[in-house]
Amino acid sequence: MKYLKLVNFEINRFFKLYMVLVGMVIVSQIAGVIVESRSFIKEANMTIRELGLTYTSYAEDYGSLSLGSIMRSGWFVLPIALCIAGLSFYVFFIWYRDWFGKNTFVYRLLMLPTARLNIYFAKATTIFISVLGLVGLQLLLLPIENKLFRSLVPVDLRHDAPMSELFTFFDGLGIIIPAHLSTFIIHYGIGFMIVFIIFTAILFERSYRLKGIVFGGLYCVIALGIFLLPFIIVIYQEKMYLYPNEMFG
Amino acid sequence: MKKYVKAVVIALFTIITIGTYYIQTSFASSNYPQFTLKTISGDESEVNDISVHSNYQIKQDGKVWLEETAEISKTGTTYMRDKSYYGEMLKGYSVNKDYDYLMKNYRSFMRGNEGDPVTFAENDHYLVNVRIDYNYVSGYSNSEFTVNTYNKKTKKKASFTLPIPDYTKYDWINIQDVRLANGKIFVATTNEMSELDKDGNYVETNYEGHIYTIDLQNNKMLKEEILLEKAFKEGHVYGLDRSILETSPYMVLVFDKFNATETDEHVEDEMEVPIQQIMIIYNIETDETEVLNMQKVVKTSSVSYESRKGNTVFISTQNDEKLTVYGYDLESKKVASKQTFVLPKSMMESKYVIDGNRTFIIDNQKKGNTSFGTITAYDTKTGKLLYEGSIEIKGNKGLRSNEEMEFYNINKH
Prior knowledge:
The structure holds 2 protein chains of 2 kinds.
Chain A: H1 2-51, H2 55-62, E1 65-66, H3 67-71, H4 74-100, H5 105-111, H6 116-152, E2 158-159, H7 163-169, H8 171-176, H9 181-237
Parallel strand pairs in A: 1-2
Helix pairs in contact in A: 1-4, 1-6, 4-6, 6-9
Chain B: H1 5-27, E1 35-42, E2 50-60, E3 63-73, E4 76-79, H2 85-91, H3 97-105, H4 107-110, E5 120-122, E6 126-132, E7 144-151, E8 156-163, E9 172-181, E10 184-196, E11 202-215, E12 220-228, E13 235-239, E14 250-257, E15 276-283, E16 288-293, H5 294-297, E17 304-309, E18 312-319, E19 322-329, E20 334-342, E21 352-355, E22 358-363, E23 371-379, E24 385-393, E25 403-412
Antiparallel strand pairs in B: 1-24, 2-3, 2-25, 3-4, 5-6, 6-7, 7-8, 9-10, 10-11, 11-12, 13-14, 14-15, 15-16, 17-18, 18-19, 19-20, 21-22, 22-23, 23-24
Keywords (chain A): Membrane, Transmembrane, Transmembrane helix
Protein name (chain A): Yip1 domain-containing protein
């Protein structure tokens, strides 16, 4: 229960900033669909009037609009990039704010009558929930955006693609939302492993200061080395000692 | 509980959205059109290990909007996009039948021993693998054969190295076949020499065919035999793939000689007609070598080597839409079978595959809305029709006007 309380406490502290990120994604992506669709229709209508074309012949000559092409615009890419940057920053901030606040809050946190490991896991859980929450938001937003797009752009001027096609079109989204659950687990598993490694390195730094930076750095290098060891062996030995399925083992 | 409302809401939202998405995708069938092989006549099992390598495209306003490779087999269509990369990796790769056999039965020996299956040989007592760590031998002072052995009775692995005789004479040495007989390992290689031309580029100047005989008990090189010395100034050499699962006392090396006149680099090699085609057959049991001029054997200007099954080497000649397949018997030293097949005009290239005793021909002539072509399988030796199947799309609608499915070639697994 102590752990859950700590998770809830951490989420409450992050909630406002998190809502800003959520709001930004929703507003920017929805606005993106509206603005891009409208400007496309406006341009199309102008050309159609000037040249006396039909919607179909315009689409044939000038191309139709798809949600996929809107998804490649800054309206989509920027908020996603900002969320990634924000959460990456928060991986560090979640620890350092406790030391560098007005009063060193971390001492109160560390004095709590619970295992200190709970604090570590609570902070990690907050990061995981926030990351996956944003992924979930994107999954919820896409069908809504698709509906909105269909209602804005006439059928002759648009290219309808199934949802899974949209994911594969925007390469970055393919990493964030892979087509298979196994790939999803591996991508996020690796991501969370990195978060744990960074957390430990931060605690090295907090515990031993300057020396700790060296320890932390070494720890990161060793952890990365162990992670990449199967590949390093292949490169140096020029032989595959491990079968592909053992590479993950 | 009320205290935890924010955490609970975010966690629940995450689980529901991500969970729903992946449950949906796991139940949903592929978004792409599904093709299958529908038997018209013959035995369906003939195409058990056959698939049609295809390319699917969605076009938007004349431009390719989505492109995806697919494999069509009798069990259905597999699109690359629908495969999970990690899932495939966890299942383990399947390169070919020989490799699967080796990995399944000698998992520990095969660890770190990846390489061409032809570099492995097996008899009742041993499994051996011969490799040269650096095929580019002239650059290394320690060019040697590494022989890895596995004793099936004692289940012990061993390894030894042997220097390659006169390796400094050669620039490249490639192992084309390895065999085991009477306590000896036979290694067939093609050795290449090169020199600098006037522009400072290395050009192959000579190819040789060698057989190295290694004593398995004493780990010694017994002899080196040059099957064809100073073969060609300009040419191609290659071994004919044979399966480790088949026993045959014959090792086969093939040399194609091309005109040595300078040709434009951009001209595709396949466009050139070889001026001489030689097949060398070495019998590991009798130590006999035979050199054949294949153009004379089948009385034609150019032959293609297709495949080998046991003691038969299948070679073909093509004249417009007529494909003639000869089965050359290594034992009786004569052409044992000759069959002519008519190739479809519709496919541009890669119309057929000769897998030993079976010849597969693909035709991409559409019939109606649902049939996108046919696959036929014939007995290579007798010409008998074994199987005829239609490449059918599921459903009655066919493809949408902006969709295209193109067949590239027949894959044998």
